[in-house]
Amino acid sequence: MNKHIPRILCVDDEHQNISLLQAILIPRGYDVVTAANGLEALEKIQHERIDICLLDVMMPGMDGFEVCSRIKADDLHRNIPIVMITSLADRENRIRGIEAGADDFISKPFDGAEVLARIKMLLHVKSLNDKLVTANGELKAFNYSVSHDLRGPLTAINGYLYLVQEKTRETLGDECKEYLDKIQKSALRMNRLIDTLLNFSRFAQVDMCSERFNLSRVAHKVSKGLQDSMPESSIIFKIAESIMVTGDKELLRVVIDNLIGNAWKYNANQEGIVIEVGALEVEGKSVIYVRDNGQGFDMSFADKLFIPFQRLPGANVDGHGIGLATVERIIKRHGGRIWAESPPGEGASFLFTLE
Predict the structure, then answer these.
(1) Which residues does 88 contact at the CB level (< 8 Å), separation at least 6?
(2) pLDDT tens digits, residue range 226-266?
(3) Residue 1: per-residue pLDDT
(4) This model's pTM is above 0.85
(5) 33 has which bridge partners?
(6) Residue 65 confidence class, pLDDT cut points 50, 70, 90
(7) At the fourth CATH level, which superfamily is domain 210-352?
(8) Pick from 306, 216, 323, 215: which is nearest to 265 by CA?
């Protein structure tokens, strides 16, 4: 297998600077592509495989800031690391470079060892990023396969099962009817598991839309849905009013739905249960909590709560062990963290922050 040779695009309107960069890079085994202005650089990026771009700032016509902005605005090439090479050392121009999307800076006159060190570091970061992009692509392909290749046979099983039940309704014995009923329930559980896996993956990739909203209203809707589904339950909800948060409303609804739903599910058959939703301030940061006064859990298993497919020992409720893992993914996407507490005899509390 041929070894991948990193290709570096050097953009500078001064030929002596290009020659100096070539003298530094080519002996180290890099493939060097050159451009004398911004338009030529954009043209090279569109038609050649570029691994990193060394970009001069002060060029006639289109300066380095604009070139950088255009590259980073292109979905196909935005992951190319850009190092701005500039004699402008003032803070204002470095901020302009960061806002344009520059990944690093090198000051003129540049040192060969520094150039090589920064290139090596950024190529390593790009390699990791490329692997992540590939993994995400494979995950999307897997999701498609799960959605179509697995759901298709399940749909057929359910369809034929329905036909068998209809055609044999009057002739089939009770024992065989029970077998068919178990097959149907198993197929439905498998279908729900597929939905759960797809949602778990989707919540890590869906675009976020941040807004300011009242989380208390979301909690009230979730609690009402649970009470409507089991009106005989004696569980009481205490939800603080006007818990204002900033984040993706749909994703945070999933968080509240899971946390309240778990408290309900694990305590549904107990008397005197109260589920609370509220907020408190810790070290100047708002902490939102969902707590109950039910059976709680063994804190020695707390580190396993947010691992996919992990379930607490002795848990006799329906589920796939994905809910809390999904919650953690969503909270992390909001720049926050989530943790659980369960003092002996005091129920369970799930607390989270948002950035």
Answers:
(1) 57, 58, 94
(2) 888 888 888 999 999 999 999 999 889 989 999 999 899 88
(3) 46
(4) no
(5) 9
(6) very high
(7) Histidine kinase-like ATPase, C-terminal domain (3.30.565.10)
(8) 323
Do 187 and 151 contact (CB within 8 A), yes or no? no
**DSSP H helical segments within the chain, as ranges?**
15-25, 38-47, 64-73, 91-100, 112-145, 151-167, 174-202, 215-229, 249-267, 323-333
Domain coordinates in residue numbering, the chain: 7-110, 138-202, 210-352
Residues 77, 44 contacting (CB under 8 angstroms): no
Answer whether the bond into residue 109 is a cis peptide, omega within 30°: yes
How far apart are the two ends of the chain, measured CA to CA in Å? 46
Type of residue found at 274: V
Q: How many CB atoms are closer than 10 A to CB 1?
A: 3
Burial of 45 (0-12, 13-18, 19+ CB in 10 A): buried
**Which run of H or E residues covers position 86?**
strand 82-86
Q: Note the CATH architecture for domain 7-110.
A: 3-Layer(aba) Sandwich (3.40)
Please answer whether residues 71 and 81 qualify as being in contact, where contact means their C-beta atoms are separated by less than 8 angstroms: no
Four-CA torsion 202, 208, 212, 218, nearest 10 degrees? -10
Tell me how far apart the alpha carbons of residues 243 and 241 are, in angstroms, rounded to a whole number: 6
- Looking at residue 5, the DSSP 8-state letter turns out to be P
| DSSP bridge pairs for 214 | 244
pLDDT of residue 274: 93
Q: Which of 34, 52, 31 is nearest to 125 (CA)?
A: 52
Q: Tell me the two tokens of residue 154.
A: 């399940």
Count CA atoms within 13 Å of residue 335 on its CB side.
Answer: 8
Task: Read off the tokens for 203.
Answer: 């919540």
Contact assessment for residue 101 and residue 78, using Cβ atoms and an 8 Å cutoff: yes
| Closest to 328 measured CA to CA, from 311, 312, 355, 352 | 352
Q: Which amino acid is at 215?
A: L
Please give the backbone phi and psi of residue 137, each rounded to the nearest 5 degrees, phi first.
-65, -40
| Tens-place pLDDT, residues 288-326 | 999 999 888 888 787 788 887 776 655 555 656 778 888
